[in-house]
Batch of 3 targets.
Target 1
Amino acid sequence: MRIDAHQHYWQLSRNDYGWLTPESPTLYRDYMPNDLEQLLKGHGITKTIVVQAAATVEETEFLLSLCETHHSIAGVVGWLDFEQDNFVETFERLRENRYFIGVRIMLQSIDASNYLQRPQVIHHLRWLEKSGFPVDLLFHSVQFPAILKLLELVPNLNAVVDHIGKPQISQQEVSPWQEWITEVAEYPQMYCKLSGMVTEGNIADWVESDFSFYVKHVVKAFGLKRVIFGSDWPVCLLAASYDQTVSVLLNNLPDELTKQQLNDVFGNNAIHFYQLETIL
């Protein structure tokens, strides 16, 4: 089974998405399951994992409601406020829905070092660590030190790095991203999403080889059992079509992968990380 393990749906009228503005006309419109259906079929992708794009529980509930009528959705990675006293209560309520399969921490626009040292945040991350519940980590490459400190405090967190840690591909950043991602990969429960790369490249003038080093290094660091394909659609449309986004990954993976290895990258690893065996 092929899975796109990182994509978004949104509905502007819900007013959850403060970062979406008319100044970005490509994204400033509704994106719903019917818009993605034919693109998925074109690549033999039967299921997707929808990831939150707003820091509200209400958006998570909206995405969960889509699962009831759109069978292409395998599950939702939602949002919770890690500083709220009712964190566990809200989590347990959402967990009653079998499609609630993960939670994402959005660090890219905040002081991650400060946030990830707050006692309430660490307390709730340790609670998730004990339960083994999947956590997505969204951050920029300069925030890797905060992630590494987090992993010292919560070493068995079942987590995945979104968008390969968002290195500055447009500048062909190598170090210290290379060293940092390798250090994260030393934690055996950590995964990495091969996603979100095209929008970190030169949006107006990229070529597929721009991403070669990054894909190959992530695969070398994590191995083929801990890397996961995600399109980051529709955000990817800022730089590339859905077809181009898939092609960037396919043409930069190590040569001569077996069918089983490709199936792992494009589905099996996501099933294992998000514990989807009993859902699919």
Target 2
Amino acid sequence: MIQAPKGTKDILPEDSYLWQWLEEIMRSEALLAGYSEIRTPVFEHTELFQRGVGDTTDIVQKEMYTFLDKGKRSITLKPEGTAGVVRALIENRLYANAQPTKVYYLNCPIFRYENPQSGRLREHHQFGMECFGAPHPTAEAELIVLLINILNKLGLSELSVNINSIGCKNCRPKYYEKLLEYLKAHSNELCPLCNERMERNPLRVLDCKEEKCGRIAKNAPLIIDYLCDECSEHFAFFKQLLESSDVPFKVDPFIVRGLDYYTKTVFEIIMQTDREGLALCGGGRYDYLVEELGGPDMCGVGFGLGMERILMELKNKNVPLPEAPKPTVYVINISKEDLPSAFKITRELRNNGISADCDHLSRSMRAQFKFANKLSVSYVLMVGGDEAKRGAARLRDMATGEEKEILISDISEYILNGGEK
């Protein structure tokens, strides 16, 4: 039997309505804040991620799905959302419009080759928002407030924000010098990969998931102690904005994020659980990425949120979720000769905005009733018999069991009025 590849998952009809509910809330909140939807290709040229995400990151070195196409071009399935959005911004000259440019992507497939575990799949889907051309920390504060509003509306509470600043081109060289000096003194304790990338990008060592590297990282110099005046002022203003927005936060100097393009602000949304704080999503500012990928000098800020992770936590916390929609009316044909009439009435109900279905399997009347019960419909409409000669049908309210004869021409109005004419 052919099965789905490891690390992928089917979204079945019994669950897809929850995705639609999730998407509706995310989309409406993004639109309220002036963000418009953008959709980028599932695959891009590999160079985009090597240059944008960074060739010393775990994503590029370990996790990308990369292959040669028939033209011998190196192609990569999207491992994150931001780089593709930046490529689209540059290629379509969105930077020439009035700024800022505010976009979001929804249900975006993301591919990472890693060991599948709870809430983390090799193919998962992200909701993300990106704001370009806004240098002030109001941009990242806006995104954080939007994120918390969305998560609250979904039913997740006890949220806070961990923040850090990882500096800019002006303050990083001095910090890198101190960090490299410290790491070299502990090189014999670091994993081979960290020793390899230490010279090229020492910040990546702080993001290593190896336990022994984590112990070294805890005592490393902190970049927040080496910020230049501009980064310090930006960070102070950012904290002030969060305070004035009643957003609970704490400074976590060990957040560096797993992508090379971040500058200044980085953040994670944390939810308290029985065990510990759980990072639901993360993001930050990337002021050099547009220029690095061939565009103008243009700042940006954004985040990515895993949709599977959010649905999993909603279920873990027993948050009341909406019920799957069901047909309002099931139209039963009393005999096979009545099937064309039942089919026509079903179509007319739908044309009037009423969810309706009818038999497609030539079932007996009893079997049709049994199927209608499985669908949990509100009404069953029985078409045929003596009522048909009078241009009517019998309508049963499935909640009360009450039946009444009603003219076929009046059925839609009756149902739309909640059982009153």
Target 3
Amino acid sequence: MSDTASSINLKDQLLNGIIKENTIFKLALSLCPSIAVTNNLKNGIFMGLAVLFVQVMVNITISLIRKVIQPKVRLPIFMLVISGWVTVTQLLMAAFVPDVYSKVGLYIALIVAFASILARAEMFASKNSVVPAMADGMGMGIGFLFALTVISFFRELVGKGTLTVPTGLSTAHIFTFINTKPVLIMVLPAGGFLAVGILMALFNWINSRYAKSSAHSH
């Protein structure tokens, strides 16, 4: 596997995962947690942070060992690395944010099966040096965190009329914004699909408008 680090713009690679290949809004991958844990802002943020941590660490690890991985067994090795970092994440969350882990722990375990993490290990980290691989992992992870934060912000605010903002590892402050009756469907699974669809359409509309304006300016 050859290095292509010299031809990679780190800023572009970072923005690629946030905008052009956003896991939720552009690729529509790993939608399970975007529906299951985003009825609460605090849970959505911590789930996004967990994926960001795993994505970055997996990319770094795969990049470091890429030259000694036998191509025929690369996928099992990638899965072993992913499961190892997911286990580390589970232990850290269980130790420091047990209240969050009790609610999202099942979905933390499912990070092992996230297609986006395996895809970046195969397509990018295994072919590039550590710095570009880390930038790629940060971009994809931040993009996922951004998507979950926006979705959970929208769902909790509309569905409950509150925002559960983390103020510490195991504490949160609830702000109440809506005095009228909240739209309760938004905190149910059906509301999750609706919120993801609306925000996905909005994200892609804004992105397309920005791309057109950039093209006209050049």
